[in-house]
C-alpha cells in the first residue's frame, strides 16, 4: 500500500486554504448573541433558546450545554424571542417578521404581522395574550395564541425597543429618546411617562406595580410609583445598560457594558449599591431569569452565562455541539444533506455542511440509517423497528405505522413508491406503494446494508451467513452471490456491473460483472471498514472505526491513506462528486473535504478583490459588529465606537 509523504509543518500554512478533511461539527464562532429565553416549566432543569446574529437559533435541552442549531428559513435579522411554554414559541425580526414554533423550535412557520417595520421585542403575559413592539411606534397584540396580530395605535413614531407587561392590564414600552409609555387598561390606551432623558432605553422590568427599572444608553432609571416619576440610578456617559431584572423590589441584576468589558452587577438594596458578580472582556446583551430563579445572560462573541438559583457565581456554558453517534449520512448534491444517529438525532445542511441544523424525529431511538431520493422526500429507520418518512425535507417526520417492527440497519428507496429495508436479524421488507403495505422475507443472516441500482437489481450484505445476496427481480427473491466468513458492512454499486463491499479485518471486495465474481483484497487486518462509496469506476473512498480514510483512483487496486485529522470511529461516508465527500461517526464527528481529501497547493492567481462591508446592528447606539467579505472572509469587532453628535 502506498504511504503518504509527510509534509513539513511550515507548509500547512500554505495548504490551509486547500486542506484535506476538516470537522464541520462545531457551532460557528464570533456570533453576536442578541436575545435568549429560558424556561423551567414542566422540566427539572431549564431548557432554553438563544438568537444568534447569523440567523441561527440555538437550543439547549435539560442537559444544559448541549446545543442544537435550529433552522428558521429567514434572511431578515431576528431580534427577540419568547416561549409561552416549552413547546410553543415566537421570534420577531426586521421587516415585520414573525415566526412561530409548536415543537420546541425544530420547525418555524411564518405568521403575517401586517407591517414591514422592524420588530424589536416580543412578550407574552399568558398563552393567548402577547405583545410585539417595533420601529416607528409599531405595537402589535394577539389574544388568540399568536395566530393573528392586531395593530395598536400608540400616538408616537419613536422606535420601540422593549415591551413588558406585569399583568393583563398593566404594561410599559420603552424606546428611543428616552420614551416610556404606560397602559393600565390592557393596551386600549397609552400614556407617556417622563424620564428626562434623550438617550435610547433598551430594557424595562417591574417587580410589582410600583417598582420598576429601565436601562439603555448611558443610564439606568428606576421608579417607586409605577412610573409617574422616574429617577436616575446611574448615569455614565459611554456606558450601556441593555438589560435589567428584579426578583423583588430589593434584589436585582443588570448588565453593564463599558466599551471594554461586560459586567453582571447585583444589588440587594433596591439599587442603592451595585456589586459586580462577574466581569468579562466582551459585551453582554440580554438577561433572563426563570420561574425557579435560574439566571442566564448572553453577549458577543458566543458567550452564555448561567447562575444557579441562590448562587452568586456566574459560570460559562460551553458551546458544545452534539456528541451523539452519527451512524448514517446522505447527500443529494454538493449542498444538501442529512445525518442521523443516536438519541433520535437528525441533522440537515443546505450549504455543504458549513451549518448543520437539528431536525426532530419525534423519538429518542437511535437512527441507524437515512436515505433521501430528492430534496424533499426521505426515510430513516432505527434499531427498534421504526421507519420514519418525510415529504418536506425533514421539517416534519411521520412514523410509517404499516412497517413491520424489526431492528433495521439499512433502508433504500428507488423512488417514492418502491423501497426496501433490512434488519440485523435477517429480515428483508419491501414496499411498492409508498409504505402503505409491506412484504416480508427472512434469511439466516445479519443484514447490514442494501442498495438497488434500479427497480430490479439489488444487493444485500451480511455480517454472518452468506455474505452477499443478489436480486434481479426487485427483491421478490434473493440468491447467494458470495459465501465466506467475512463481516461485510456496506455494499455500493455505480451501475449493474461495478460494485464494491467493505468490512472487517481490512477486506474490500470488488466485482465488474454484477457480482457473478468477486475479487477479495485484504488491505490490513487492523482495519475495520464500515462504509464505502465510489463516484465512478476509478474513484472511491472507504472509512474505518479508527478514523482511517482511504482513497483509490484505480477502482480499488491500490489505496492511499488520507489525513482525516481524527481517530474517532467513522460510521458512514457519502459524496456528491469527486471533491465533496462527508464522513460521520462517534461523538458527533462530521468530516468534509472539498478537494477529494488530497493535499495540494493552488497555482498563483491574479485576484480582483471586491470588498463588501456590513455593520451590525445598523443603526447602532454604542457598539457595532463590522464585517467585510473578501476572498478570505473575516470579522472584526470594535469594543466601542465613538459617538457622533
Provide the descriptors you would attach to this structure in a database record:
645 residues, single chain, 1% helix, four-stranded antiparallel sheet, mainly beta
Would you give an account of this structure?
Helix content is 1%, strand content 45%. It is built from one helix and 58 strands. The chain starts with 10 loop residues before the first helix and ends in a 7-residue tail after the last strand.
Strand percentage lies at: over 45%
Quaternary organization: single chain
Q: Please report the total strand number as a whole number.
A: 58
**In terms of structural class, how would the helical and strand content be classed?**
mainly beta
Q: How many DSSP helices?
A: 1
Write the layout of secondary structure elements.
Blueprint: H1 11-15, E1 22-23, E2 33-39, E3 47-52, E4 57-60, E5 67-70, E6 78-83, E7 89-93, E8 98-101, E9 109-111, E10 119-124, E11 130-134, E12 139-142, E13 150-151, E14 160-165, E15 171-175, E16 180-183, E17 191-193, E18 201-206, E19 212-223, E20 231-240, E21 244-246, E22 252-257, E23 262-267, E24 275-280, E25 283-289, E26 295-300, E27 303-307, E28 315-317, E29 326-331, E30 337-341, E31 345-349, E32 357-360, E33 367-372, E34 378-382, E35 387-390, E36 398-399, E37 408-413, E38 419-423, E39 427-431, E40 439-442, E41 447-452, E42 458-462, E43 468-471, E44 479-482, E45 488-493, E46 499-503, E47 507-511, E48 519-522, E49 529-534, E50 540-544, E51 549-552, E52 560-562, E53 570-575, E54 581-585, E55 590-593, E56 612-616, E57 624-629, E58 634-638
Antiparallel strand pairs: 1-55, 2-3, 3-4, 4-5, 6-7, 7-8, 8-9, 10-11, 11-12, 12-13, 14-15, 15-16, 16-17, 18-19, 19-20, 21-22, 22-23, 23-24, 25-26, 26-27, 27-28, 29-30, 30-31, 31-32, 33-34, 34-35, 35-36, 37-38, 38-39, 39-40, 41-42, 42-43, 43-44, 45-46, 46-47, 47-48, 49-50, 50-51, 51-52, 53-54, ...
Amino acid at each position: 500500500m502506498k504511504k503518504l509523504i509527510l509534509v513539513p509543518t511550515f507548509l500547512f500554512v500554505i495548504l490551509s486554504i486547500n486542506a484535506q478533511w476538516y470537522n464541520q461539527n462545531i457551532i460557528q464562532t464570533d456570533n453576536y448573541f442578541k436575545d435568549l429565553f429560558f424556561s423551567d416549566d414542566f422540566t427539572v432543569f431549564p431548557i432554553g433558546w438563544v438568537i444568534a446574529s447569523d440567523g441561527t437559533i440555538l437550543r439547549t435541552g435539560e442537559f444544559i450545554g448541549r446545543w442544537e442549531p435550529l433552522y428558521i428559513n429567514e434572511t431578515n435579522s431576528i431580534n427577540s424571542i419568547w416561549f409561552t411554554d416549552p413547546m410553543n414559541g415566537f421570534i420577531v425580526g426586521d421587516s415585520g417578521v414573525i415566526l412561530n414554533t409548536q415543537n420546541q423550535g425544530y420547525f418555524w412557520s411564518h405568521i403575517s404581522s401586517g407591517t414591514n417595520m422592524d420588530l424589536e421585542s416580543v412578550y407574552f403575559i399568558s398563552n393567548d395574550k402577547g405583545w410585539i413592539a417595533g420601529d416607528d411606534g409599531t405595537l402589535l397584540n394577539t389574544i388568540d395564541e399568536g395566530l393573528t396580530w392586531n395593530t395598536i395605535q400608540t400616538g408616537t413614531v419613536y422606535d420601540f425597543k422593549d415591551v413588558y407587561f406585569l399583568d393583563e392590564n398593566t404594561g410599559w414600552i420603552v424606546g428611543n429618546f428616552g420614551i416610556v409609555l404606560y397602559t393600565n387598561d390592557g393596551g386600549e390606551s397609552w400614556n407617556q411617562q417622563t424620564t428626562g432623558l434623550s438617550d435610547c432605553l433598551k430594557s424595562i422590568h417591574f417587580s410589582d406595580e410600583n417598582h420598576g427599572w429601565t436601562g439603555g444608553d448611558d443610564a439606568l432609571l428606576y421608579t417607586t410609583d409605577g412610573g409617574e416619576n422616574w429617577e436616575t440610578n446611574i448615569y455614565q456617559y459611554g456606558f450601556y445598560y441593555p438589560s435589567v431584572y428584579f426578583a423583588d423590589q430589593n434584589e436585582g441584576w443588570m448588565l453593564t457594558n463599558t466599551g471594554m468589558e461586560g459586567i453582571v452587577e447585583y444589588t440587594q438594596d433596591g439599587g442603592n449599591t451595585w456589586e459586580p458578580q462577574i466581569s468579562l472582556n466582551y459585551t453582554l446583551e440580554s438577561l433572563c431569569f426563570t420561574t425557579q430563579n435560574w439566571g442566564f445572560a448572553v453577549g458577543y462573541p458566543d458567550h452564555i452565562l448561567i447562575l444557579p438559583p441562590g448562587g452568586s457565581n456566574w459560570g460559562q456554558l460551553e458551546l458544545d455541539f452534539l456528541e451523539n453517534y452519527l451512524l448514517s449520512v446522505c447527500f443529494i448534491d454538493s449542498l444538501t444533506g442529512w445525518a442521523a444517529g443516536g438519541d433520535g438525532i437528525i441533522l440537515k445542511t443546505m450549504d455543504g455542511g458549513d451549518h448543520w441544523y437539528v431536525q426532530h424525529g419525534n423519538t429518542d431511538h437511535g437512527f441507524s440509517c437515512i436515505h433521501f431520493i430528492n430534496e424533499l422526500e426521505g426515510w430513516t429507520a432505527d434499531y427498534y423497528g421504526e421507519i420514519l418518512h418525510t415529504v418536506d425535507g425533514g421539517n416534519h417526520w411521520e412514523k410509517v405505522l404499516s412497517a413491520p417492527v424489526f431492528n433495521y440497519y439499512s433502508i433504500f428507496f428507488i423512488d417514492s413508491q418502491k423501497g426496501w429495508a433490512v434488519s440485523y436479524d435477517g429480515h428483508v421488507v419491501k414496499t411498492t406503494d409508498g409504505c402503505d403495505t409491506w412484504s416480508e422475507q427472512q434469511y439466516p443472516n445479519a443484514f447490514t446494508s442494501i442498495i438497488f441500482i434500479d427497480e430490479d437489481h439489488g444487493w444485500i450484505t451480511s455480517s454472518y451467513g452468506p455474505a452477499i445476496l443478489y436480486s434481479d427481480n426487485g427483491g421478490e427473491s434473493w440468491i447467494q452471490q458470495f459465501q465466506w466468513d467475512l463481516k461485510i458492512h456496506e455494499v455500493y454499486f455505480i451501475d449493474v456491473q461495478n460494485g464494491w463491499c467493505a468490512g472487517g479485518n481490512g477486506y474490500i471486495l470488488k466485482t465488474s460483472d454484477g457480482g457473478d465474481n468477486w475479487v477479495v483484497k485484504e488491505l490490513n487486518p487492523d482495519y475495520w471498514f464500515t462504509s464505502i462509496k465510489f463516484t465512478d469506476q476509478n474513484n472511491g473512498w472507504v472509512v474505518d472505526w479508527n478514523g482511517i480514510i482511504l482513497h483509490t483512483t484505480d477502482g480499488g487496486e491500490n489505496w492511499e491513506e488520507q489525513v482525516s485529522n481524527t481517530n474517532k470511529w467513522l460510521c458512514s461516508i457519502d459524496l456528491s462528486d469527486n471533491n465533496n465527500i462527508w464522513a460521520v461517526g462517534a461523538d458527533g464527528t462530521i468530516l468534509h473535504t472539498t478537494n477529494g481529501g488530497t493535499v495540494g497547493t493552488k497555482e498563483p492567481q491574479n485576484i480582483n478583490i471586491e470588498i463588501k462591508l456590513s455593520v451590525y446592528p445598523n443603526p447602532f447606539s454604542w457598539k457595532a459588529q463590522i464585517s467585510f467579505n473578501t476572498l478570505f472572509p473575516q470579522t472584526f469587532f470594535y469594543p466601542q465606537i465613538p459617538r457622533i453628535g
